[in-house]
Design goal:
The chain is α+β, with helices and mostly antiparallel strands and about 375 residues long. It contains seven helices and 19 strands. It folds into two domains: about 250 residues, no CATH class; about 45 residues. It is about 40% helix and about 30% strand. Strand 16 and strand 17 form a beta hairpin. Helix 3 packs across helix 5. The protein is extended, with a radius of gyration of 31 Å.
């Protein structure tokens, strides 16, 4: 190949997995880079599930500062065999709250050995499914015995729900039926505190469902791309963990990315493409939902605070932009409306000035007539 460089003259980096040599892409010379990141549990870079420490979306964003994986959102996503706008959000016909989200993301970047690799993920996020899962978790929860440090067989939330059919409604309590596998479902006592907690979580999903789905999809891409390729970490005593990332300095511009994206969507064999349809697991969903809710609260102005954090204003601007697009208002229309309002105000001001001049003139004539008399 014309672009091939003799390895004995182009050794650039001795990595953990292999020796890495200078490479080229599209006629541009690329150099490998090794970056060592210090992830912190306190900063939310990873979280603990049972005995494992899993990297969060915040942690992957940190690692991607070196990996330089470009995540793009295609214009469309396939839902039930149809092409829909991406992301595709289904809303309740009455409340307009989010029922489900389908989102597709594509990650474009170089592998540690310099090959262009594309990760294509489509994620389906069903709000109703997670409501059922959270209710079932409350029903299965057992009390903890502090004396023996063991779980007991005693239910932690007795009377919060029972499995049955529509005809099996319990007598005591306030009940509502949720279908799971027709004709079976769950009768839920919506006066029970455990169920009220489930409904609060459900409201959070309805509010932030589209953002949660997109963050989980992007996290899965960064996790599976070979430039990072790490899922778990092993923290030190100070609750931090080191992760090495191998990337390449390159000159890819937006035009290059658009070309790669178009070919990736067609399923070209020119690049290493890994496509997958996924659903987030319960722990992953819980982590991102809690993080999204926490972020929302942290960004609100505090009493006595002179000025909210910059993120607050950025969020306000994005929401205003989204609302403007949703209602179909255009910048030109707003400008015309402002100009019309300004012109109308000017006409009113001119009329006031003329009335004042006329009043002064009349008063002057009146005073003159008195002097003449």
């Amino acid at each position: 190949m014309a672009n091939e460089i003799p390895k004995e003259k182009a050794l650039a980096l001795v990595a953990d997995f292999a020796d890495v040599y200078v490479s080229s892409y599209g006629g541009e010379l690329m150099k490998p880079v090794k970056a060592s990141f210090k992830l912190s549990e306190k900063k939310g870079h990873y979280y603990k599930i049972q005995k494992k420490y899993i990297i969060s979306s915040t942690g992957y964003i940190q690692l991607n500062k070196a990996a330089s994986i470009n995540i793009v959102t295609p214009k469309s996503v396939i839902v039930d065999g149809k092409e829909e706008n991406n992301p595709y959000v289904e809303r309740h016909p009455i409340t307009r709250a989010i029922d489900s989200v389908a989102v597709r993301k594509i990650g474009i970047g170089f592998s540690p050995i310099g090959n262009m690799t594309v990760i294509d993920k489509t994620l389906f996020y069903n709000v109703y499914t997670y409501l059922i899962q959270s209710i079932q978790a409350k029903m299965k929860a057992k009390e903890w015995d502090n004396k023996t440090n063991r779980l007991t067989d005693k239910p932690k939330h007795p009377g919060c729900g029972v499995v049955g059919t529509r005809e099996d409604k319990p007598e005591k309590g306030k009940w509502i039926f949720y279908l799971t596998a027709d004709p079976l479902g769950i009768w839920v006592n919506y006066e029970h505190q455990a169920i009220l907690d489930c409904l609060e979580e459900h409201t959070q999903r309805q509010r932030f469902g589209d953002r949660i789905a997109q963050k989980i999809c992007e996290r899965n891409i960064l996790r599976d791309h070979p430039a990072i390729g790490v899922d778990t970490v092993f923290p030190d005593e100070d609750k931090t963990a080191r992760v090495n990332v191998y990337s390449w300095r390159h000159e890819l511009n937006p035009q290059n990315l658009d070309d790669i994206l178009r070919q990736a969507e067609k399923g070209t064999k020119e690049y290493d493409i890994k496509a997958e349809v996924v659903e987030p697991d319960a722990e992953e969903e819980k982590t991102e939902r809690e993080q999204e809710t926490k972020t929302e609260e942290e960004m609100k102005p505090r009493p006595g605070q002179e000025e909210p954090p910059p993120e607050f204003w950025d969020k306000q601007a994005k929401q205003a932009e989204a609302e403007k697009e949703a209602t179909g208002k255009d910048k030109a229309e707003k400008k015309i409306a402002d100009e019309n309002l300004f012109e109308e105000q000017e006409q009113k001001n001119a009329k006031k000035r003329n009335n004042k001049k006329l009043a002064n003139l009349t008063f002057g004539i009146f005073c003159k007539s008195i002097i003449l008399k």
